[in-house]
Design brief:
Structural class: alpha/beta
Largest sheet: 5 strands, mixed
Low-confidence stretches: none
Radius of gyration: 16 Å
Order of helices and strands: EHEEEHEEHEHEHH
Number of strands: 8
Strand order of the largest sheet: 3-5-4-7-8
Length: about 180
């Protein structure tokens, strides 16, 4: 990583615009991943490095999703899980660096799942797994393996690399069954 680099992963155009405004006066490098779906959203203020809880649950399972595609994926999995009577918390992990260590320290859930439209090595899941290394949490990461990713549609690549509803839902069901 580049020292003092901030990496933002906005969930929609509104968050992108807010991060862009933040970066204009920021005294260090600030990278922002552009949300390709182009969905609008409100421009809200938030602190750099802070995550946002989008759906709260007392289930013992928390999903950290980075970016618009993974948040959409988490919401689709949640709807299907709720049909089975299963619920989980969804967090918009809008910064890869810095991590929201305050929120991560406050997590009560035993099972932590990360979703990222990105390489797992050096990504959000890797960082969260390192954070919980000795914390008694079970961390499961979904993203792209460390390989050159060929060209293709985002949905076909995500499906090929395991970042799909069925695999994530299968894990959520198994974690729920374990209690």
């Amino acid at each position: 990583f580049i020292p003092n680099l901030t990496i933002g992963i906005p969930k929609d155009i509104g968050e992108f615009r807010a991060m862009l405004r933040m970066s204009a006066d920021y005294p260090a490098p600030f990278a922002i991943r552009y949300p390709r779906s182009g969905e609008e959203g409100p421009i809200k203020t938030f602190d750099i490095g802070k995550f946002d809880i989008l759906h709260s649950s007392m289930s013992g399972i928390i999903v950290f999703a980075a970016g618009e595609r993974c948040i959409s994926l988490a919401n689709r999995v949640l709807k299907r899980a709720q049909n089975d009577g299963i619920d989980f918390t969804i967090v918009n992990a809008r910064f890869l660096k810095p991590l929201d260590e305050e929120m991560l320290s406050a997590v009560k859930e035993r099972y932590v799942v990360t979703l990222e439209d990105n390489m797992l090595a050096g990504g959000l899941g890797d960082a969260i797994a390192r954070f919980y290394r000795n914390g008694g949490k079970e961390v499961y990461n979904f993203g792209y393996r460390d390989a050159f990713i060929p060209h293709g549609t985002p949905s076909s690549l995500a499906s090929e690399y395991g970042l799909n509803e069925n695999e994530i839902l299968s894990l959520i069901r198994s974690l729920h069954a374990r209690g």
